[in-house]
Design brief:
The structure is a single chain. 54% of the residues lie in helices and 18% in strands. The chain has helices at 2-41, 44-53, 121-171, 187-233, 239-270, 283-300, 319-336, 388-398, and strands at residues 60-65, 68-71, 87-92, 99-109, 112-119, 278-282, 304-309, 314-318, 342-348, 351-356, 402-407, 412-417. Strands 2-1-5-4-3 form a five-stranded antiparallel beta sheet. Strands 7-9-10-12-11 form a five-stranded mixed beta sheet, with helices on one face. Strands 6-8 form a two-stranded antiparallel sheet. Helix 5 packs parallel to helix 8 (388-398) and helix 6 (283-300) runs parallel beside helix 7. The longest helix is centred in the middle third of the chain and has 51 residues, at 121-171. The protein is rod-shaped and about 155 Å long. Its EC number is 2.7.13.3. The chain crosses the membrane at residues 130-152. Keywords: Kinase, Membrane, Phosphoprotein, Transferase, Transmembrane, Transmembrane helix, Two-component regulatory system.
C-alpha cells in the first residue's frame, strides 16, 4: 500500500508540473500573438504606449525601443530564447517580496524583439507545498502500515505459536488435543477445523487398532492355550487316543491360521491389492446358488430357508467374492437366528434382502459390527473370527454396492443395493 500511494503521489506530482508548464506556455504564446498582431496595426509610438499600459499582473512585457527600455524591466535579460522556448530569470523589486522568479521568452515583432514573461515563483511554491504534504502523507502511511502490520502479524504469530504448542502435545501422544476455532471463519479457523477432523479420524483409527489388538489377544489366547496344553499332554496320551487328539489340535491350529488368513485377505481387498475377476453376474442365479449351498446348514438347525426372486439384474463383479459376501450374511443369520427360525433371501432387481426372525442386532451396535474382530457374542458360543461382516463390507465397497442393517421386527434385515452393469 505504501508503494501504491507513493506511486500515485509521484504521478500526481508529474501531472501537476506538466499542467503548470502547459498553462504558462499557452499564456505566453497567446500574449506573443497579440503583440505581433498589434505591431502590424499601430505605429511605433502607439505600440510603445500599449506596452506601457500593459498589466504586469497578467504578463510582464518589455521592449527595447532604441536606447530606451519600455515596459516593466529596466534592461533586457541576456540569452533569452525565442518563444515557444522559455527560460526562468530573477528580477528585483522594491516591494516586500524583493526577488521574483519569472518564466518567459522573446517574440519578434515589426518593431523588434519583445520580452514576454510571467511570474512562476508562486506556482513553484505551490509545488513545494504539494511535495511537502505528499512526503508527510507518505511518512504517515509508512508509520501506519508498520504499526498495523506489526499488530496484524503479532495476532497471526500468536495463533501460530499456540497451534505449534498444541502440535507438540499431539506429537507427545495427547491425541485428544484439538486446535481452537475462534468462530471468525478465517483461514486459520478453516485450517484448524480440517486439522481437528484429521485428528478425529486418527484417534478413531487408533482406538480401532487397540480394539483389534485386544480382540486378537482374546480370540487367539484360548486356542493357543489349548494347543500348548495339548502338546504338553501328547506324550501321556494312550496310543488309541493319540490320533484323535492330534486331529483336535490340528483343528485348533487351522482356526488360528484361518483368522490370520482372513485378516490378510481383508486387507488386500480394502487396499485394492486383490484384482477383481470382473464378469457379468446374474443376481438371480447368485441367490439361487446361495440357497442351494446354505439350505443344508439351515436344516441342521431345523430352520426354514426360502428364496424369493423378482426381476433379474446383471451386475459387473467378481462372482466368487460376491458369493462369499452373501454366504457370510446367510451364515450369520443361520448361526444367530436360533433353532426353528425363518430366514428369507429376497431379490428384487439390484436389491437383495436377507432377513430372519431371530434376536437381531441392537441399533447402537449396527455400525460397530462392521469393524474387525468385533463379535457381539462375548461368550463366543459360535466359532468364528469376527471378520465376516468386515469382509462383506469390503467386498461390497469394491463393487460400489451398499449395505444397510435394519430391524425386521423381530429379527434383522440386511439390505444390499447393487449398481446395474
Amino acid at each position: 500500500m505504501t508503494l501504491i500511494i507513493g506511486t500515485l503521489l509521484l504521478v500526481l506530482y508529474r501531472q501537476l508540473v506538466n499542467e503548470q508548464q502547459t498553462q504558462v506556455r499557452q499564456h505566453l504564446l497567446s500574449e506573443a500573438q497579440r503583440y505581433q498582431q498589434l505591431s502590424l496595426t499601430v505605429d511605433r509610438r502607439a505600440f510603445a504606449a500599449q506596452i506601457r499600459a500593459s498589466d504586469s499582473r497578467t504578463a510582464l512585457i518589455a521592449w527595447q525601443g532604441g536606447v530606451e527600455m519600455v515596459g516593466s524591466l529596466t534592461l533586457m535579460p541576456e540569452n533569452m530564447p525565442l518563444l515557444p522556448n522559455t527560460r526562468e530569470f530573477p528580477i528585483f523589486t522594491g516591494g516586500p517580496e524583493k526577488l521574483h522568479i519569472l518564466t518567459g521568452g522573446v517574440v519578434m515583432t515589426r518593431y523588434g524583439p519583445v520580452l514576454i514573461a510571467t511570474r512562476t515563483d508562486h506556482l513553484a511554491a505551490l509545488i513545494d507545498k504539494f511535495v511537502s504534504a505528499a512526503l508527510t502523507a507518505l511518512a504517515l502511511t509508512i508509520v501506519l502500515a508498520l504499526v498495523v502490520g506489526y499488530l496484524f502479524s503479532k495476532g497471526l504469530l500468536s495463533r501460530l505459536v499456540h497451534y505449534n504448542r498444541l502440535s507438540e502435545r499431539i506429537e507427545k501422544g495427547y491425541y485428544n488435543t484439538r486446535l481452537p476455532v475462534s468462530g471468525k471463519q478465517d483461514e486459520f479457523d478453516l485450517l484448524a477445523a480440517q486439522f481437528n477432523r484429521v485428528l478425529d479420524t486418527l484417534e478413531h483409527n487408533l482406538h480401532a487398532v487397540r480394539g483389534v489388538t485386544d480382540n486378537i489377544a482374546h480370540d487367539m489366547r484360548t486356542p493357543l492355550s489349548h494347543l500348548r496344553i495339548g502338546l504338553e499332554q501328547l506324550p501321556y496320551q494312550p496310543p488309541e487316543r493319540l490320533a484323535e487328539r492330534c486331529g483336535e489340535l490340528t483343528d485348533e491350529l487351522d482356526h488360528c491360521l484361518a483368522t490370520f488368513n482372513a485378516m490378510l485377505s481383508l486387507t488386500r481387498i480394502e487396499e485394492g491389492q486383490q484384482t477383481l475377476e470382473l464378469q457379468p453376474v446374474s443376481l438371480h442365479e447368485l441367490c439361487a446358488d446361495l440357497r442351494e449351498m446354505a439350505e443344508a446348514l439351515a436344516e441342521e438347525r431345523q430352520q426354514t430357508l426360502t428364496l424369493e426372486t423378482n426381476e433379474d439384474c446383471v451386475v459387473s463383479g467378481d462372482k466368487h467374492l460376491l458369493f462369499q459376501a452373501l454366504f457370510n450374511l446367510v451364515d450369520n443369520a443361520i448361526k444367530y437366528a436360533g433353532e426353528g427360525a425363518s430366514i428369507c433371501i429376497r431379490q428384487r432387481g439390484g436389491s437383495i434382502e436377507i432377513s430372519d426372525n431371530g434376536p437381531g442386532i441392537p441399533e447402537a451396535a449396527r455400525e460397530k459390527v462392521f469393524e474387525r474382530l468385533v463379535r457381539l457374542d462375548p461368550s463366543r458360543h459360535e466359532q468364528g473370527s469376527g471378520l465376516g461382516l468386515s469382509m462383506v463390507k469390503a467386498i461390497l465397497s469394491r463393487h460400489h454396492a451398499t449395505i444397510n442393517l435394519t430391524d425386521n421386527q423381530p429379527g434383522l434385515k440386511v439390505i444390499l443395493n447393487f449398481p446395474r452393469a
